[in-house]
Amino acid sequence: MSHRVAEPGAASARLGDRAFRGLTLAVGMGLIAVLVVVLWVLAQGGAPALARFGPGFLVGRNWDPVHQSFGALPYVFGTLVTSAIAITLAVPVAVGLAILLNEPVGRAVTAPLASFVDVLAAIPSVVYGLWGLAVLSPAMERHVEPFLRATIGRIPILGRLFSGTPSGGDLFTAGVVLAIMILPIVTAISREVFSVVPRDLREAAKALGATRYETIRMGVLPYARPGIVGATMLGLGRALGETIAVSMVVGGGRSVGASLFAAGSTIPSVIASQFLNAQGIGYHRPALLALALVLVTISLSLAALSRLMVRRTARLLDGGSVEGAAEGPALEVSG
Amino acid sequence: MIGERRWKRAGVGGAIVFALVAAACGGSGGGGGGGSFSGVPLAGAGSTFAAPIYTQWAKDFNGIESGAQVNYQAIGSGGGVDAFTKQTVQFGASDAPLQPEQQSALPGDAIEIPTVLGGVSVAYNVKGIDTGLKLDGATIGDIFLRKITSWNDPAIAALNPGVSLPNTPIKPVHRSDDSGTTFVFTTWLSMGSGAWKSGPGAATTVQWPAGEAGKDGSDGVAGYLASTDGSVGYVSYDYAVANHLGVAAVKAQDGSFVAPSVDSISAAGGGLQLPIAPDTNVLNSTAPGAYPLATTTYVMIYANQTDKDQAQTLVDFFTWGLTKGQDSAAQLEYAPLPEQVAQAALQELSKINVGGTPVTASSSVTG
Amino acid sequence: MIASAQTGAAATFGRRRLKDRAFTAFLWACGGVALVPLGVIAYYVVRRGLPALSVAFFTKTPAGPLDPSAGGMVQSFIGSGLIVGMACLISIPLGILTAIYLSEYGRGRIADAIRFVAEILLSTPSIVAGLVVSAVVVTAMRSFSAIAGSLAISLLMWPVITRATEEILRLVPQELREGALALGLPRWKVILRIVIPTAGAGILTAMMLAVARGLGETAPILLTALGSDYVNSSPWRPTDAVPLRIYDYARQPLEALQQVAWGGAITLMVGVLVLSIGARVLSARQERRLR
């Protein structure tokens, strides 16, 4: 990166250079300012609600604009549950896919596969929502959820998740949609992580007669683990913040029960559905802004942590940096 | 705040586009009162319940005053009041009258007028029971409290002598999202059922008893009702009609049972007194033949306007809506305002002025 | 003893091979599972979207509720163009200047901080961008407007353009810069006249990706541009956009409106995919050229 070359002495050139450098620096600092302003606006706007309801804001169950009582538990719960479902479903597939795409065999098949997975990331959120609402929800209600209820639903403790009346527009369906949406980014980052695991480790394992499974389990996975954790966290951050697709399939309820078949809401979905309808008088708006502050704090911290983890993996294994690794697929999920 | 440079840059681009548009639109929206007035764009927001009628009015009115693009966005009644208070729209729309604390937050005097009436129907789908089952508030309350769980319960039988009721289990369904329909329905239940009032109470969303189906949106509820035997729920009248659902005849104050219809809902508006007060409602109307579960929807407009063309367009639009526009109300399964209420609303509209000069409707809408 | 050890070893080997087979099957299953959603979504978008495309769809504004099937969504296409176009005017210069600082000047803590913030801002929940702009700009301007929507989208596009452009600028060979500097050109001229043009196609790629993202965003404009039933070309008035219209119509009970929503979905998908895939092709070419 360093390009130190003797600069010509012309004063005007130096002045122009200083001005241009100053301009780019100012704009760059502007990006930091954006982050500060976002946090400030949310903190400022949410402060009345946080002051009024205190820590109880996050654990209160009652969200009642009529009586001006606001507890965010149903939305925090819905956000965590749908994201957890998404991670549970997407990460194993993404890691498997990343391994497959990294294997030297079957390139003719796997190369297009990689592109197809990236295309998933380019589909606009609202299209996922439309499809989720019109196609997936009814299918979940009629086929998938009754099936799960009749099978896993019979197992003693786990079964409670799959009890209740299937409704299609619920936490489970939202989790499934989220899983599809975060699959590309978790896959892409896992791939980057696998690609920097030193070749000699796998070669050594192979030379000892290890099968492919053993090679990957012993020679690849241990080194890639922090990177996969980072990829998972980034996926989690995306899932937490996804708005439109989720709000279209999550049902708009406020369940805090065990059943995944109940209508719920997430923090972004409740902001999308209530903010315009929230009154300036009282605590409704402040409560929504406070929710947004909670959300943005969590998702930006996750993003920060995951970047650090992916970078660390890269540095440990490579000695260099894979800046691109943290970029995810070239096509971005939009919300 | 978010980078001043961006504002300027946007401003330049914006100014160019704006200038082009202004040039293109130049000449439209001339002096008020004359027949040549062609209107200016207006923004309104609020009630989702009233969205279809305002959208239809806007479409039709655009054919009369070509410059009048009335852009109505259904963001919810609360949002309508808020946007109106902040003056981000020229008119707000709400299903509930302004409350005292909302009125005191307004920056100026506002008029509040009813525009159309609607009904919430208690809709059901039970094999063996035709439409028109008779129910009263207490019974409906007990059904939604899960105290009555079978369609041949004695309480239902007592209201329906001579009707053979199946022993199908009752499957109540409610709106799982925040909804004005839920507000109207639960307010009415609180009036007729002590158990309901002391239990879930009245709100846009309430704590429903465990085990009841919840559906997102009127569409979700109507869909559930259409496909589930034994189900009962509440949807606005137009949904019940569109989905061919059975609707209950509900017990009125005088002891008669009234089914929802455009006429019976319209009759419920007969008792409306203007100006609208914070506690105005048309539930359990004592007017003869009135459907008890009726509701009305309001628009709010500032009395003292500053922009002459905007004021003229507002007056023209709502004058037209309160007169000729009432015809499309029935086609969209709303009920028109009774004549004397529409006249009283027009009277309120005449309070709109620009700098003290009253704004009278153009001949294009009065003629 | 020996015999049993042998069969034991054979059994172990068999188990190992079985595990390996199972693992390989799992990997391919992952590939299959990943393909299913894309296939299903593409199928429905095409099947339900194609019949919706008509002349009226592209040229008319929504009809009234009495005859909903007679309408189109021309106002949404124009609105999307207006909103995203203005968002580009705002975010592209900012994004490129930020990238120039990071790649050409930035060293040390400040650059690290800016780069880090750009990275984590990529994870900003899109609704938050809309919320902040709505709370500040819409309230201050006393109107929902296209420009407010553009600002919200710019918040999301800026870091995207910054990160992608920085990557491209880093690929520009160092010798080019050094050669030009040695000729006596000041650095800022080297950057603007040599570095940026060399990276031109790559920067175009970054812009295309950002535009693709901006076009598909719903949440930020929901709270800022609000939507409209009319063709609007004023930045200061409420404005429609394709994703906003899809979001609205998807939840309507009327089949005619849902069909329009699917029509919007297929046009939006085609637009976004052309931009995204075009960007990938361009960037692959560019990288080959630079490396």
Task: Briefly summarize what is shown.
The complex is a heterotrimer of chains A (335), B (367) and C (291). Chain B is α/β, with parallel strands linked by helices and 367 residues long.
Distinctive features:
heterotrimer; A: 335 residues; mainly alpha; 11 helices; 2 strands; disordered N terminus; C: mainly alpha; MetI-like fold; 2 domains; 0% strand
Percent of residues in helices of chain C comes to over 70%
Structural class of chain C: mainly alpha
CATH class of the largest domain in chain C: Mainly Alpha
Q: What is the molecular shape of chain C?
A: flat
Oligomer: heterotrimer
Helix content of chain B: 25-40%
Task: Name the shape of chain B in a single word.
Answer: elongated
CATH superfamily caption of the largest domain in chain B? Periplasmic binding protein-like II
End-to-end CA span of chain B: 50 Å
Can you count the helices of chain C?
12
**CATH fold description of the largest domain in chain C:** MetI-like fold
Q: Runs of chain C with pLDDT <50, length 5+?
A: none
So, CATH architecture of the largest domain in chain B?
Answer: 3-Layer(aba) Sandwich
Using only C-alpha atoms, the radius of gyration of chain C works out to 26 Å
Contiguous low-pLDDT stretches of chain B (5 residues minimum) are 1-34
User: Which two chains form the greatest contact, residue counts included?
Assistant: A-C, 104 and 108 residues
Average pLDDT confidence of chain C is: 89
Question: From the alpha-carbon coordinates, what is the Rg of chain B to the nearest angstrom?
Answer: 23 Å
User: What is the CATH H-level superfamily of the largest domain in chain C?
Assistant: MetI-like
CATH class category of the largest domain in chain B = Alpha Beta
